Predict the 3D structure of the following.
Amino acid sequence: MKEITILGSTGSIGVNTLDVISRHRDKFNVKALTANTNLDVFLDQCIQHKPEYAVMADEDCASKLEEKLKKEAPDVSILAGTDGLLQVAELETVDYVMAAIVGAAGLLPTLAAAKAGKRVLLANKEALVMSGKLFMDTVLQNNAELIPIDSEHNAIFQCISTANTSSISNIILTASGGPFLDTPINELSSKTPEQACKHPKWDMGRKISVDSATMMNKGLEVIEASWLFNIKSETIKVVIHPQSIIHSLVEYKDGSVLAQLGNPDMRIPIAYGLAWPERIETCAQRLDLFDIAHLDFKEAEADRFPCLQLAREAIKQGGTSCVILNAANEVAVNEFLNKRIKFTDIPTIIESVMSDITQNTANTLEVILRDDGLARNRALEIIGNMTL
Ligand SMILES: NC(=O)c1ccc[n+]([C@@H]2O[C@H](COP(=O)([O-])OP(=O)(O)OC[C@H]3O[C@@H](n4cnc5c(N)ncnc54)[C@H](OP(=O)(O)O)[C@@H]3O)[C@@H](O)[C@H]2O)c1
C-alpha cells in the first residue's frame, strides 16, 4: 500500500489522480490533499477520501473548511498556507507526492517532496522550469524518484526506458497546436479567454489551456525536457500533431524512432507514474487505429506562436532567464484571463520583461524567488501602462 499526497487535488490533474486511485484502493491510500480556494470541491473530496491531512493554501478557506468538516469528517487534520503544503509534501509516512499545483506556487512543496526523497509525480512543470539544476540536484542528492506526468514527457520516459541518453539523437515533442491553430493570424487579438480555454483535445485548467493556445506550454515543455532527460534543447524538436494520439517520440542514433501512443486522457500517464515499473488498469478509452485512420503533422509557424521562440531564447540566455520568462507568462496569462489585456499582448509583455530584467546565475532558491518577484512586478508595471 502506497501512501499519497496530492498537491492540487481540486485541479484537472488532481481530479484525474483521485479517479485512478479510486479504482486501485488495494494499492494506494490518500494521505493528504491540498487546494487553494476551491472550498466546495475540496470539501467533497475530503468527505469522500477521508485523508489524514487536508491543506488549503488560503488561510480563510482553511478556517471555513475546518468548520464544515467538524461534523462530516472530524478526523481530518486541517492545515493552512505554505507551511501546511510543505508539511504534507515531506511527511515521513508518505511514499508518493503528486505535484499538481499550477504555476510557481507549486515550487516550494514540490522541491520539499524531492528533498524528502519521495517519488515525485511531476505535473507542475513550472517548478522545474524555474529551478532546473537546483531541482534535479535535489532529486539526485536525496534519492528521490522523479516521474514526469506531462503526457509528452511521460511518453519520452516510456520510450527511453533503460536506454543510455548518449544514444539519443533527437527528442520530438508533439503539440496539438491548441484552439487557434487554423485561426487567421490577424484575428488572434480579438480572441477571448473562453475561446482560448476551449482546447480541442484536452480538458485542462485555465492557465495551461491558455499556454497551449499561445504554445508557451510547448516552450515550457522544451525547458522541462532538457532538464528531465539531460539533453540539449537544440535536439528537442517540436511538431504539431493535431490529433494528440502520439504523445512524443525519441529518435535514436541508429535511425529507430520510438513513440508512445494513446487516446488523450491524463489518467494514462498518471496511472503509469503511480504504478511504475508495473502497469495498472485505467478507464481510458482504448485506441482504435482504424477509427483514427491517419495522423497529421505540421511545423509550428513562428509568427503564430512567438512564445515558443521566447522560451528557446530563455534557454539560450541561461541563468534565471527561464524564471523571468515563466513569471512574466504567469502574470500575462492571469491578466488575459481577467480580460485586462488582449491574447496577442501575452508574448509582447513577456518579451519586454525579458529584456528589462537582468538574469542571474540560478544557483539558489533565494535568487530564483527574487528574480521571479522582480519579473512579476515588471510585468504588472508594463500592463499598467497599456490600454486595451
Ligand atoms: N491539466 C492537464 O491535463 C495537464 C497536463 C500536463 C501538465 N499539467 C500541469 O499540471 C499542473 C496543474 O494543472 P491543472 O490543469 O490540473 O491546473 P488546475 O486545474 O488549474 O488546478 C490547479 C490546482 O492548483 C491549486 N492551486 C492554484 N493556486 C494555488 C496556490 N497559490 N497555492 C496552492 N495551490 C494552488 C488549485 O487549487 P484551487 O482549485 O483551490 O484553486 C488546484 O488544485 C500545471 O503545472 C500544468 O502545467 C496539466
The pocket of NAP is lined by residues 8-14, 35-38, 57, 100-102, 105, 123-126, 150, 202, 204-205, 207-208, 266 (CB under 6 Å). The mean pLDDT is 96. The longest strand covers residues 28-35. Residues 365-384 form the longest helix (20 residues).
